[in-house]
């Protein structure tokens, strides 16, 4: 990878500061809406680099925004720093070993994600100053991507109303332009209220809320045959009504995540799930209530931005991994199954390569692969602002997301190299937007065409607020 452009030199000048930031965030994993230490690290870095800082973005105390530049278009660079529960893992080894029993861990690489995004913003700030180009760069530090839909709340609060375009990235096994195939997703809690009684001497007097939950889950499972093949429904028991089997459970609670290809399909599926819940309540003579916890939209593609991002990847070449990086990645791959590795290539749409523990290629833009999408709150930004996402190799090919292997690689030199590469790709794409009015106009026209037929409506109901968690003592 050669620094053929000024912006990449400027990113490189700050690489060590942001590798340090990434490693610090890795070492303080905080889950959704509890990222008080992580956001403080990002806030301090924004102040150190001379950004104008806005805290409590969208009414969320763990969200922060830093702006630099004057006039011109506004380019948003989106970062994240939330971790996952139960993925504590010692770094830079190839066996499962917790740092803290039952602790949290960065099993999705968000320590890298936020740090690279802020590095890209810092490079863009320098570029604006050195070139005298009108324009503003904003770093958005976004919490709670993992199930918390924070960007959806931020969009609803108007945090992106005056943004012209947004860029972001995500750690991955292969380097490519992100496919706009994420699913719309709603998380709903269903609570069943029954009547407790003695399970042996007076079972006829009880009305089991746990039975209602089980019947609801069975009904949803039967639905799977009769819904679109790319839709998904998952559930988790939040409250089983206690641990005493000789008590008829008077209360039980289950959370369902309902995913579909688009918002319209998701809303239709949600109504069907509610009917199943109503049926379970009717069968058990219990009362059912439901509450939406969070929701995200499906991702909108933007062809002009996809092309601009891909051209930056092409000019940079693949991530410059070395022999030591490949050695550690091979050790990680030895803990994976052949199916894990084959699945990564299948999703990317490229032929499997032998003796290639780390991605040494860029997936062609026209190659789409097999769609196996998840959900992200970046999607809600994409409905109000032309948005593009890069996927950049930071871990061994085949590494499952949300795994101990992912956490283990989060501070490896290979992850740092991918992080710097991602910052350059995002910064380069932002520069293209700032100096090419035709590209910006094309991105906006593409976005307007997609939203004209289906205007954006936030999937989070107005009465649902971010589940803010208290600051630790």
Write the layout of secondary structure elements.
Blueprint: H1 6-13, H2 15-26, H3 36-48, E1 52-55, E2 64-70, E3 74-80, H4 110-131, E4 135-142, H5 150-156, E5 165-172, E6 176-177, E7 184-193, H6 209-223, E8 232-239, E9 251-260, H7 263-284, E10 287-296, H8 303-316, H9 323-333, H10 338-348, H11 378-384, E11 387-393, H12 404-408, H13 413-435, H14 437-453
Parallel strand pairs: 3-4, 3-5, 5-11
Antiparallel strand pairs: 1-2, 2-4, 6-11, 7-9, 7-10, 8-9
Helix pairs in contact: 1-4, 1-13, 2-4, 4-13, 6-7, 8-13, 8-14, 13-14
Question: Could you explain the architecture of this structure?
Answer:
- This protein has 473 residues and is an alpha/beta fold.
- Helix content is 40%, strand content 17%.
- It has helices spanning 6-13, 15-26, 36-48, 110-131, 150-156, 209-223, 263-284, 303-316, 323-333, 338-348, 378-384, 404-408, 413-435, 437-453; strands at 52-55, 64-70, 74-80, 135-142, 165-172, 176-177, 184-193, 232-239, 251-260, 287-296, 387-393.
- Helix 4 links the parallel strand 3 (74-80) and strand 4 (135-142).
- Helix 1 (6-13) crosses helix 13 (413-435), helix 2 packs antiparallel against helix 4 and helix 8 packs across helix 13 (413-435).
- The two termini are 46 Å apart.
